[in-house]
Each structure stands twice: as C-alpha cells, then as structure tokens.
Amino acid sequence: MLKDIEIAQACEMRHILEIAREAGIAEEYIEQYGNYKAKISTSLLDDRKDAPDGKLILVTAITPTAAGEGKTTTTIGLTDGLRCAGKKAVAALREPSLGPVFGVKGGAAGGGYAQVVPMEDINLHFTGDFHAIGAANNLLAAMLDNHIQQGNSLGIDPRNITWHRAVDMNDRALRNIVIGLGGSSNGTPREDHYDITVASEIMAVFCLSSSIADLKQRLAKIIVGYTYDNVPVTAHDLKAEGAMTALLKDALKPNLVQTLEGNPAIVHGGPFANIAHGCNSVLATRMALKLGEYAVTEAGFGADLGAEKFLDIKCRAAGLCPSAVVVVATVRALKLHGGANKKNLATEDLAALEKGLPNLFRHTDNITGVYGLPVVVSLNRFSSDTEAELKMVIDGCAERGIPVSLCEAWEKGGKGAVDLAEKVIAAAEREPSMSFCYPLESTVREKIGIIAEKIYHADGADLTSSAAKQLRQIEKNGYGNLPICVAKTQYSFSDDASLLGAPEGFRITVRDLRVSAGAGFIVALTGDIMTMPGLPKVPAAENIDVDENGVITGLF
Questions:
Q1: What integer best gives the mean pLDDT of the chain?
Q2: Does pLDDT of 106 surpass 90?
Q3: Three-class secondary structure assignment of 387-416
Q4: Confidence class for position 2, pLDDT limits 50, 70, 90
Q5: How far apart (Å, rounded) are the C-alpha atoms in residues 219 and 205?
Q6: Are 58 and 298 a contacting pair, CB within 8 Å?
Q7: What's the Cα-to-Cα distance from 218 to each of 2, 263, 476, 484, rounded to whole Å?
Q8: What does the pLDDT read at residue 226?
Q9: 329 with 393: CB under 8 angstroms?
Q10: Which residues are bridge partners to 196 per DSSP?
C-alpha cells in the first residue's frame, strides 16, 4: 500500500495556470510561485463583488481521538466528489503548521487519494505566509522592548506585558524564558514567553481581515501590555502597524493549489482551533464562494471547537452562512469514545460503539438545534469496519433523521465521495439561515456560560479569582461586547481530556482571560491548554528525510 507522500509524488500535476483557468481566474490575478502554486490577487474580490456567491459547506467532526477521523481528507474528497457529480466546487483549506508536521501529525494536506498538492511544499514552507506572520509578531515584540529600552515614554509596566514572541515549531523550552540579560545595553530583563505561530493573535487577525486596510486597522488594535496605571498599550501606540502590514501584504493574498484530481483548492492561513478560532482566511473563503457553485471549507478539531468558532466568530465577523454542515466520524473513533481499548479497534465491538455514538449525536444535535443548520454525517470507512458496526451507525442516524454517507475518499478519491456529495447537495437546497449560540450584548460571563451549557452540555462555567479580576479589567476597558474564543482540550466536550464520549455533570473552569482586540474576540483559557506545544518522545521529524535527488520521505 502506497503512503500518502508516495501517492502525492506520483501525481502528474497540472500547471497552476490551467487550474486558475478552470476555476475562472484570469491570468492577470495570478502570481506564480513556480509551476504548481500561486498567489491570487485580492483585487479579484473587488472586481467580482457583484457576482453571486456559491453555497458554503462546512466540514467538521466528532470529538477527535488518536484513532483519527480524516476531516481534511473528507473536505478534499467532497470537493472532488462534487466535481464528479457535475458541480463546480472549490476547496478552502488551512495551511499546516510546522509544529504538528514535525511533531505527532506529520503531513496535513489530506490523505490517500484525497490530497492537495504539491504536498511537500504545502506542509513545509509553502509560499512563506507563516514566516511572514511570525516576523510581524516578533517585530512588534522587538519594538515593544525597544520602546522600554529607549526611555519608556508610554509608561509600560514590564511586569504586565501580554505580547509574546512566536515561532512555528513545537518547542516547550521556549514557553517561559528570561530576556534582556547581559547588562543595560541588552535591554530590560523580564520574563517572556513564546507561542507557536498559529496561536499568535497576528494569525487570527490575518485570517479574519477582509483587506489590507482592515488588516492594518486590526493590527493597530492589538494590546501588547499595560501601563503602570493599568491602561492598555496597543501596537498603534508603538507606531508598529504600518511595518507589520508591510510584512504581511503579500502573505494576505490567498494561495491556489490543486487536488490530486486537478481541481482547484485555496489554502490560506491556519489558526489552531483549540487555542484560536481554527478556520482558514475570510479572503480565501470568499474567493471560493465567488469561484464555485460550492465552496467546501473545514474547521479544526471537533464541532464543539472549530465549528462553534467558525459559526460564532468567523461567520459573525464576515457575514457568512453555511448552507450545510458535514460532521465526520469513524467507527474506530466512536468505539474509542465508548471505552474500547485503542489496541483493539480493528475488532468488532458493538457494545463500545453503542456507548460512543452519543458523542456523534451531541455534535449533530448542536448543529441542528443550536445553529439551525442542516447536517450530513460522513462516515469514513476503514477496512476493519464490520457490516454490523456500519449498520449500527447508519441506523442510529436514520432514527434521528440525519443523512449519512459511507465515504471512501481516502481509497477512491472523488468517486468515493459522490454519495456524500449528493447528500450534501440535497441538504443545501434550502435558503441558508442560521442562529448564533449567544447574543453579543450578553456579559462575558453569560457568553462563556451559554457556550458551556449549550455546546459542551456542561452544568455551567466558573472563573478562577485571577480570571475574575481579568474580567473586571476587560469590562472596564470596554471589551465586554466581543465574542468568546474558548481555548480548551480538543479531546473532550469538557476541559478534562480524559472525559470521552458525551460526558455530563461537569463544569468548565476558566483560568485566564485575554483580549485579542485586533482579532476581535476574548480568549478564555481552560484546563491545561498551552499556546506552545512540545514535541513527543518520538517526533515525526525523526522519520523525515531527503535523498540525494531531493526527494522527501516521511511526511506520512
């Protein structure tokens, strides 16, 4: 059996100008990065502002497990499946982070015969977007410390600086550091921190911006710290937003690539969904909507994280509304949620599967009941799945009136997702309308509580004394009307990763509140969630190599 990277390397890619023409993009809007990837000028959106939008399809998933669900694979397969069904579809995906690529996950551009290519480029440096985001983040950090060094006319309290440095790598040694050592010429000594680039507020700002002007305005609002009088200090106060925008202006143009079947895919931006809002850029999504009858996009991790933030943050900010939502599930993952041993997932276990099904149904109920959107379940089929197990999932969905499709995109590409495509087309027939989970005018406490109760099915949410103090300052500074971005474990509806399935009788504890004023949301950190991951005992990087001909191996 070929590995994902071997399948991708065997693909005969079409020239990127052919892909652009097929997508309806004139050459004048294309900036080539070699023969197989390109930037799309944002002027395309200005020139097509009066053109109708296609239907937006959101792909999300059950609570993720180590068994894997295949959400990106499904997103790409569905795009190819819609094309096989005679529909003009365009995928809008996130860019992979180098941290997971070299950590646990390996490649993150789909799998099997449902991938975007050039796979190695997309997984590694691509067109340099993440490097630009990291550079803008660290320029702001450098200007902040330089301001303090050069007299500190703003009166910034070095003990109350909230802006962190960033690097796109899993490096736990950088979580807590001390800078400015070595004498007065080397700056003011203070504690500092590193975040992974995808957790930087610049990444969130980048993905929510609608134009260069909007990007600059959002960057200007970023809070970097507080004065001795507890007044927020922004990037604008440091006169940093212009230079930061200069670093990001080319990165802001979405990237055009192709699926293995030669269909257009726009890959742009990539905030983590357990830390940030977990969606690709607004610009990429809007372009996909202007270019296709269907724009297929994904939101990170389970529907309680990525989909909730896609709907309550991104859709609210950008005026988007999905026509249908696909929830990806696997028999293996559902058995794991039902208590099956990870080593025995290839063995039929109907009892564990039955216990795990409530996780799937909680997610689908949230989509239909809270947001009022039609849902389709994509059941990714594995060779170890038995007919009895598949029937149990299909029957369970049927009892609830949920369309379900056995998806075989990994093995068969678009042809393996035609049934899913047809069910999505049927679900998306009605005029889209959506309700939000919470009203913006509610208090911060109320909004956090509503998410906890409606989406996680918790008994409520509690704030630590530290978070309560931060909340008072947030409301005093006038940020209480912003939406909430909950940072929590992706492995559970709760803030405890060990509570699998559909847990009940728990409460969420918020230990930290941070204002992302540029992105336009408040981050509520729960549990032991970290903004800088670490590498595992055996990182994926150990298996990645390059031969004498420059051929990369080990990217899964």
A1: 95
A2: no
A3: HHHHHHHHHHHHHCCCCEEEECHHHHHHHH
A4: confident
A5: 7
A6: yes
A7: 45, 33, 21, 17
A8: 96
A9: yes
A10: 167
Cα 350 to the center of its chain, rounded Å: 32
CA dist., res. 492 & res. 456, Å (int): 9
pLDDT at 556 over 90: no
Position 458 scores a pLDDT of 98
pLDDT computed for residue 259 by the predictor: 97
Q: In angstroms, how far is the first alpha carbon of the chain from the final one?
A: 12
SS3 523: strand
Tally of CA atoms within 13 A in the half-sphere of 118 that contains its CB: 17
The crossing angle, in degrees rounded to 10, of helices 241-248 and 212-221 is 140
Query: Residue 118: is the preceding peptide bond cis (ω within 30°)?
Result: yes
Cβ–Cβ under 8 Å, residues 389 and 350: yes
Structure tokens at 548: 């004498």
pLDDT interval class at 67 (50, 70, 90): low
CA–CA separation, 404 and 394 (whole Å):
6
* Residue among 331, 326, 327, 299 at smallest CA distance from 313: 299
Q: Please tell me the distance from the alpha carbon of residue 257 to that of residue 25, in angstroms, as a whole number.
A: 13
In the numeric block, which tokens belong to residue 35?
A: 């023969």
What percent of the chain has a predicted confidence (pLDDT) above 90? 92
Catalogue the active-site residues. 71, 73, 94, 105, 273, 301, 382, 410
The Cα 172–Cα 489 span in angstroms is: 17
Q: How many Å is the maximal CA-CA distance in the chain?
A: 72
What's the rounded mean pLDDT across residues 316-327? 97
User: Mapping DSSP to helix (H, G, I), strand (E, B) and coil, where does residue 514 land?
Assistant: strand
Torsion of CA 283, 284, 290, 293, to 10 degrees: -150
What is the pLDDT at residue 69? Answer: 84
Rounded distance between C-alpha atoms, residue 164 and residue 365, angstroms: 38
Model pLDDT for residues 496-540, shown as the tens digit of each residue: 999 999 999 999 999 999 999 999 999 999 998 889 999 999 999
3-state secondary structure of 322: coil
- How far, in Å, CA of 97 to CA of 123, rounded? 7
* DSSP code for 130: H
Does residue 347 carry a pLDDT above 70?
yes
The one-letter amino acid at 436? F
β-pairing verdict for 223-227 and 194-196? unpaired
Q: pLDDT value at position 185?
A: 92
Q: How many CB atoms lie within 10 A of CB 89?
A: 29
Rounded Cα distance between 261 and 413, Å, is 8
Q: Is the peptide bond before 64 cis (omega within 30 degrees of 0)?
A: no
Buried b (16+ CB within 10 A) or exposed e, 70-80: bbbbbbbbbbb
Q: Are strands 484-487 and 461-463 parallel, antiparallel or unpaired?
A: unpaired
3-class state of residue 477 by DSSP: coil
Cα R_g (the chain), whole angstroms: 23
Give strand pairing partners of 39. 31, 255
Rounded CA-CA distance 471/240 in Å is 27
